[in-house]
Amino acid sequence: MLDYVQLEADLDEEERLIRDTAREFVADRVRPEIGDHFEAGTFPTEIIPEMGEMGFYAPNLDGYGSPGVSETAYGLLMQELEACDSGLRSMASVQGALVMYPIYAYGSADQKEEWLPKLGAGEAVGCFGLTEPEHGSNPSAMETRAERDADGYVLNGSKTWITNSPIADVAVVWARDRSAEDDPVRGFLVETDRDGVTTNEIKEKLSLRASITGEIALNDVRVPEENVLPGVSGMKGPLSCLTQARYGIAWGAVGAARDCFETARQYATDREQFGGPIARFQLQQEKLAEMATGITTSQLLAYRLAELKERGDLRPQHVSMAKRHNVRMAREQARVAREMLGGNGITTDYSPMRHLANMETVYTYEGTHDIHTLILGQDLTGIAAFE
Ligand code: TGC
Ligand code: FAD
């Protein structure tokens, strides 16, 4: 596997173990069938508890069953999952960074005790409802609202493009609290079997096909006071969760690109044209050299993020730079790898076209490439150019 500047030489034993465990799990349990799932538009739901048993959901959190592994170990895990398919990494990202993290960071003791162990074990599935039909890049304009009633809140609104909503047991729903001054955004734990909740699946996707995506419609949904996340109020709540998930994507995208590179390198060595392997042509070697360089520079960025995160110096803007850079790199490398495989490259027999299609989603979700450009622009100039 490509590790051109020997970053893996510095991994500790636990980090190597987590990388290898994830790599083997993916090779045995997911990779053989992933092309079929992509074609069928399905996710292998039977592996959800298996991933829990392996400790793949938020192992970087400490307590309530999570071991508190290093941020590098967590990144390597995301890298190995996405080397198989972005849908697999999405499963772990949403469950860990977008559902367990807000409960861990902002939940009450009861909420943590009720949800973290079973989400960590994959015995329950969570989803994260921020995006709305009319408010994607600008979630702060959300229309979903919570009105107080006698013993809690009544929620109304709709969320869309929600990973795993059709199979979720609980949704972290972000809504404006109309009973408080300035309608602050609050997080609500909404069990999906509550009256008034519907979660239709979105089936027409041509990207991230091996992942379940849906809507969340909330029609006079009553939730008790104890379902509100007490520890946060305002957009910082959902945006801080996004920073956790974007961190995982910055690592994961490197995995997808690495898989494209390894597939293209092997193919170029095996495939013969004009009397010998196509890997002997300078045009093909130039492509491999560019890919290896792009992957290596992205790896360096990911490893540096881990160091900053460990010592508490990671800023959301650092994560924006890495998500933006590494996903663009992976999208470009997937296209080049696809090209190197000729006609075979457009099939599900090989991974690059699947990764390429997936990268269109990864480029768009968790803040589009444009939005991360503007976040960096604001940080570099002090001037916000969102509006
Ligand atoms: P703004 O006024 O800038 O900030 C409000 C408060 O939040 C703080 N903050 C952050 N904190 C942590 N991490 C971040 N990334 C943060 N960004 C902002 C900020 O310091 C402030 O705190 P305080 O204490 O002063 O109140 O907020 P804004 O509403 O103007 O934000 C602007 C913008 C464009 C950056 C934001 O809206 C944005 O990031 N938009 C992109 C939307 C997005 O990424 N949606 C993702 C939906 S979830 C998803 O895609 C899941 S895919 C899952 C999968 O399958 O993997
Ligand atoms: P829009 O915001 O309408 O953007 C359209 C275009 O306009 C983009 O190119 C964008 O970059 C550009 N644009 C927007 N604003 C500006 C600006 N100020 N300046 C310049 N250009 C701009 N959301 C969740 O909450 N939870 C999930 O689990 C989740 N999972 C997802 C799974 C999939 C498969 C997909 C595709 C999306 C998912 N999302 C989820 C939603 C995702 O986060 C949004 O699609 C994303 O934030 C962009 O919003 P939008 O699609 O409404 O695009």
Summary tags:
387 residues; alpha+beta; Butyryl-Coa Dehydrogenase, subunit A, domain 1; Butyryl-CoA Dehydrogenase, subunit A, domain 2; Butyryl-CoA Dehydrogenase, subunit A, domain 3; 3 domains; seven-stranded mixed sheet; two-stranded antiparallel ribbon; 10 helices; 11 strands; globular; binds 3-thiaglutaryl-CoA; binds flavin-adenine dinucleotide
Kindly state the percentage of residues in helix: 40-55%
The value of Rg in angstroms is 21 Å
The low-confidence parts are: none
CATH superfamily of the largest domain: Butyryl-CoA Dehydrogenase, subunit A, domain 3
What would the principal axes of the Cα set say about the shape? globular
> DSSP helix count?
10
**What is the helix/strand order?**
HHEEHHHEEEEEEEHEEHHHH
Q: CATH top level of the largest domain?
A: Mainly Alpha
**Distinct small-molecule ligands in the complex:** 3-thiaglutaryl-CoA, flavin-adenine dinucleotide
Which whole number gives the mean pLDDT? Answer: 97
Could you give the distance between the termini? Answer: 44 Å
Count of β-strands: 11
Instruction: Quote the beta fraction.
Output: 5-15%
Structural class label:
alpha+beta
Q: What is the domain tally?
A: 3
